[in-house]
Amino acid sequence: MPGKLGKTAWHTPTLSAASHELDPYLPGSGNLGYRVSRYDLDLEYRVNSNRLNGTVVVTASSYQPLDRFSLDLASGMRVERVMINGRRVRYRHRTGKLTITPNTPIPAGGAMMVEVRYGGNPRPVRTAWGTVGWEELENGALCANQPNGAHSWFPCDDHPEAKAPFRIEVTTDAPYYVLANGRLISQRRRAGQTTWVYEQVEPMATYLAAVQIGQYERRTMVDGPVPVHALFPPKLAPRLEGSFGRQPQMVQAFTEMFGPYPFPAYTSLITEDDLEIPLESQGFSTFGANHCDGTRDHERLVAHELAHQWFGNSVTVARWRDIWLHEGFACYAEWLWSQHSGGKSADEWARHYYAKLAASPVRVPLADPGARDMFEDWVYKRGAMTLHALRLRIGDGDFFALIRRWTEKYAYRCVTTEDFIALASTFTTAPLGDIWRDWLFTPALPPFPTMR
């Protein structure tokens, strides 16, 4: 791609796209031959024994004839039965793939309801970036799937472009609160257990699907057009306001900057355990107890995770090499919130991190950093610097109009760097080719950007 902008093949994947390709960053995740249109998860979880039993129905349609196909599912889970359209079929489960053989081949355009009954003791899967997926806590559980840990706890097409609506039903011991994606549509208690049912109607990538379980207290921080909630261990209640109290103002500020909040509500969940880093899921974010210390020392992380609801969760990359479209935008949101709330300006933060980037040069371009580096801090900061350079070039009015159009045009869809370049060109007559060349496609750090 470097030096070949004029020859780029534009790619705008959507939920209705006929197919998707496997990602070279994660070639073992994702599957070919079909498109998922819905997931229905019916789970039962025992906290004390970390035992998960589930029945998952994957509704899909084939885009090519299939005499067999696969789902991603961690080898630690034991499959008990697989059915297609109500009939039992043969399967093989090994090395993280559930390979299914229909009784008769599925024709191109054929509809499938694939039901998988399974169980086991879920645990994270090992990746080049550490362990990801289902994690057992001291008193509960959480899911930290990014980038490919969803298959640690349910069978799926574990690829960011394979977005679909979800229904998630979880039954667990009555003292525990269950948070999952979407709206809570029912809660039933019976014989010492509670069943929680969530409906996530906006299409969601599998890595953003999550079930968080703990003995939490729930507080509504604001009940307005965008309700903002918090879930936390009761012992952390005195610290909550100091660390998370400005979230309603953040939602309002980001809505003005980025466009309407893309989901029905937003929740911050704070676990009893310390967590090294917070993580985003669709509709909520998860923080460790160490991030709720009664101060604003971690407020940049609160802003970062909230911004991912627009950049990453609603507008999602089709391929992992474009992760700067998630992390660069969320990092820049930190700088924007700092300025909005009376702290350092975005330009001051840009200069601060430019010096750090200059001190640690890299040899790969931002638009394709390589799988090993895609979660490195320089990707976040250089992504934010790219946006700052663009803002200085086209001016605040056109810059924020572009960002709002970006989140509107591609809401609940998947995108590439080329999509952003193409859209940006419609908001200015100023030449932008040097910005993309210098900041996205050339490893060397360009001079600090200036206004034109």
UniProtKB/TrEMBL annotation:
It catalyses: Release of an N-terminal amino acid, Xaa-|-Yaa- from a peptide, amide or arylamide. Xaa is preferably Ala, but may be most amino acids including Pro (slow action). When a terminal hydrophobic residue is followed by a prolyl residue, the two may be released as an intact Xaa-Pro dipeptide. The keyword DNA damage does not apply. It is an enzyme of class 3 (hydrolase). Residues 250-439 form the Peptidase M1 membrane alanine aminopeptidase domain. Its EC number is 3.4.11.2. Residues 38-208 form the Aminopeptidase N-like N-terminal domain. This is Aminopeptidase N. Keywords: Aminopeptidase, Hydrolase, Metal-binding, Metalloprotease, Protease, Zinc. Belongs to the peptidase M1 family. Its cofactor is Zn(2+). One of its GO terms (molecular function) is aminopeptidase activity. InterPro entries: Aminopeptidase_N-like_N, Aminopeptidase_N-like_N_sf, Peptidase_M1, Peptidase_M1_aminopeptidases, Peptidase_M1_dom, Peptidase_M4/M1_CTD_sf.
